[in-house]
Write a structure and sequence with these properties.
Layout (H helix, E strand, L loop, with lengths): L2 H17 L3 H5 L2 E8 L9 H13 L3 E14 L3 E12 L4 E12 L5 E8 L2 H6 L4
Parallel strand pairs: 1-5
Antiparallel strand pairs: 2-3, 3-4, 4-5
Length: 132
């Protein structure tokens, strides 16, 4: 499987686990090393933060649908893939939130690809990378 296919498969699994409210399967896609940057009001989001937020959102069925578009590989090696994409989340109340992301996947010791870093891109970066 090539980098594009690995990244797309990971994104597809994210969407499926979110739409099925499968917290355990979703968290298996997230590394314990996860760091999320660029969220207003937060320096960094870690694994425990992600776990708690997803647990709440899944239990309350807050998200109706998640999708990703514009997948572009930026760089890769045997154990990591960095890519750009636009994430769109549609909440059950009809609210739609869309934002460009830089994502880093890492092949962990168990052979599973998990996200280790996400960064929300600002509007200038999104335009630069053709995501805006």
């Amino acid at each position: 499987m090539n980098d594009q296919e690995i990244a797309q498969q990971w994104l597809d699994k994210c969407c499926t686990t979110i739409q099925q409210y499968d917290h355990a399967a979703h968290m298996n896609l997230i590394s314990r090393e996860i760091q999320v940057f660029g969220i207003p009001g937060f320096d960094v989001i870690n694994y425990d933060d992600w776990y708690s937020q997803c647990e709440y959102e899944f239990n309350e069925k807050v998200i109706a649908e998640a999708s990703y578009s514009g997948l572009r590989i930026r760089s890769s090696n045997d154990d990591q893939i960095m890519f750009l994409t636009t994430e769109t989340i549609r909440a059950t109340d009809g609210t739609i939130d869309s934002h460009p992301l830089e994502v880093v996947l890492k092949k962990e010791t168990d052979g599973q690809w998990r996200v280790v870093q996400e960064r929300l891109l600002d509007s200038d970066e999104a335009r630069h990378f053709g995501l805006a």
